[in-house]
Design brief:
The complex is a heterodimer of chains A (about 170) and B (about 100). Chain A is about 70% helix and about 0% strand. Chain A is mainly α and about 170 residues long. Among the domains of chain A are: about 80 residues, Four Helix Bundle (Hemerythrin (Met), subunit A); about 35 residues. In chain A, helix 1 packs antiparallel against helix 2 and helix 2 runs antiparallel to helix 3. The longest helix of chain A is centred in the middle third of the chain and has 26 residues. The termini of chain A are far apart. In chain A, about 20% of the residues are buried. With about 100 residues, chain B is mainly alpha-helical. Helix content of chain B is about 80%, strand content about 0%. Chain B has one domain: Helix Hairpins (Orthogonal Bundle). The termini of chain B are far apart. The chains are: A mainly alpha (about 170), B mainly alpha (about 100). Chains A and B meet through helix 1, helix 2, helix 3, helix 4 and helix 5 of A and helix 1, helix 2 and helix 3 of B.
Chain lengths: ~170, ~100
């Protein structure tokens, strides 16, 4: 076994175990912390795949900003404890069965068909560096980049409007 | 590099776990986190294929997906806060006011 394979298997184990723990943890705060671990392990996968810029963006944006927002809302609402899993008795077994079927089919197709893909090319020296990412972003993808700024502005305004409570008898809370 | 099938297989497993989370859990915040997990699994597939073909476009797409995910989280959490204010609960089974 090569060092790459050992590294991959350990990291994949971490990613899957944290994802399953997130799925079954009773406390929403623990679920969020498990998800941070999962995002960090995926960031290491990005490093293995020659994508250092994306890996660091993953850590700052996902594991940092987004998950802090999640934890903030969980603690703001005081909604850590989750209730019973579901009201319908058939929901959980049918979800598990269909999920297992989906995963089995996906893995079967991936491991029988993806071998038809061309084998990995040797990437150029600058593959995945921030400089090359910026070069493509500001040359080929300038318009999507600018549209993104409008999207973020709209999201910010939407969040402010939604969470702004209506004035109740003259005193907004 | 390992065969790309390994990474795509892991991505499929993570995606399925996220889909199961959406189906099984009733807490809307945890459902939301499962959606993030599914987005993340898709990102992993993008980066794996970008490395396999030696093209940067896949990584750029991940960049845009992350931006959309950040916007989606901001709006979604604001929605959850508003729902909690009105119903004192974020259980998705309670959100049945429009049920006929």
């Amino acid at each position: 076994m090569s060092i790459d394979l050992i590294l991959f298997l350990i990291l994949a184990l971490v990613a899957i175990v944290t994802a399953v723990s997130m799925l079954f943890s009773r406390n929403a705060v623990y679920a969020a912390l498990f998800l941070i671990l999962n995002f960090s392990s995926v960031a290491v996968f990005y490093l293995l795949l020659n994508a250092p810029f994306i890996a660091l963006t993953q850590i700052t944006v996902y594991a940092g900003a987004i998950m802090v927002l999640f934890l903030f809302v969980i603690m703001l609402l005081g909604a850590e404890q989750t209730g019973p899993v579901s009201s319908s008795w058939w929901l959980q077994p049918s979800a598990l069965i269909s999920g297992a079927v989906l995963m089995g089919e996906a893995l079967y197709i991936i491991f029988t068909q993806v071998t038809l893909l061309p084998s990995a090319v040797t990437p150029s020296e600058s593959f995945g560096t921030p400089a090359s990412v910026g070069e493509i972003l500001f040359n080929q993808y300038l318009l999507p980049f600018e549209v993104t700024s409008i999207l973020l502005l709209v999201a910010m305004m939407g969040a402010i409007v939604l969470s702004h409570s209506e004035k109740q008898s003259g005193s907004g809370s | 590099m390992l065969p790309v099938a390994y990474y795509i297989g892991l991505s499929a497993i993570l995606f399925t776990i996220g889909a199961l989370g959406v189906l099984i859990r009733r807490n809307s915040i945890v459902i939301f986190m499962s959606v993030e997990l599914m987005l993340n699994a898709a990102n992993l597939a993008f980066v794996a294929f970008a490395r396999n073909f030696g093209e940067m476009q896949g990584q750029l797409f991940v960049f845009f997906v992350m931006t959309v995910a950040a916007a989606e989280v901001a709006v979604g959490l604001a929605l959850i806060v508003t729902i909690f204010r009105n119903k004192q609960s974020i259980d998705v089974d309670q959100m049945n006011s429009m049920k006929g």
